[in-house]
Amino acid sequence: MAPRFFVGGNWKMNGTLSSGKELISTLTGAKLDPNTEVVIAPPALHLLGAQQALQGSKIALAGQNAYHKASGAFTGEISVSQLQDASIPWVILGHSERRTLFHESDADVAEKTAAALSSNLSVILCVGETLEQREANESINVVVRQLDAVLSKVPQDWSKIVVAYEPVWAIGTGKVATPEQAEEVHAAIYKWAGEKLPKGQAEDLRVIYGGSVAAKNCKELANKPSIHGFLVGGASLKPEFVDIVNAKL
Ligand SMILES: O=C(CO)COP(=O)(O)O
Q: Most buried residue, 15, 24, 93, 197, by CB count within 10 Å?
């Protein structure tokens, strides 16, 4: 059986308290495919307000990042255990904006992932290549290197990890990967999972696609056999997010 379709909305550093509330009321008022798991990631400052606004809804929340230490002198950071304490069940880790702009290494992402899982959080683990790497035919090698780094710290249980393949060149550019380009890397990730994860886990792993996903391109992507959901940036701030959640209907 195919794993449950998963759609995440990464709001990044966008919006106000009131625009966030409005967006949530659009989502809670909409008819969403009950077979799709929906997780939204508002800015950290907005998480608790969003939690209140989502009471009684099946939509879950994610932090956009977290630090692996439980507490201490780390000004400006939020820890995985603080997310857990606040009943935020998910966290996005390894987003390319974190890797590029905030210099998070593969090893940092691996450490954060291990810490998040120990705090019982579920993780949306982002991987993906730059344009330069794609042009050098390195896409799959880069993604495998990023996954191997996490595997070295999380050798056993990947059941709480969703892998988001987000080619950097497709993020926020309007240049969506073609369904064939995305499928090729997703299939390589499943091959990796089949070879490297403990038996039986590859079948349940969700590999989702992110990078300029929109209402107009989501159905074609969702029809590919190895694409089991999306991580949406820009379009998750608009009512069209509902159409993306409903891509399989
Ligand atoms: O980075 C993304 C989601 O995490 C994708 O962003 P866009 O959908 O705006 O391209």
A: 93
70 in a structural domain? yes
CA triplet 58, 59, 64: central angle to 5 degrees?
150
Instruction: Give the residues across from 67 on adjacent strands.
Output: 79
Q: Count the domains in the chain.
A: 1
- Predicted TM-score (pTM) of the model is 0.98
Question: Can you tell me which atom of ligand 1 is nearest the CA of 212?
Answer: 10
**Mean per-residue pLDDT, 63-92:** 98
Residue 247 counted as domain residue: no
Identity of residue 113 = T
Ligand 1 centroid, distance to 198 Cα (angstroms): 30
Q: Which residues span the domain enclosing 235? A: 6-27+36-241
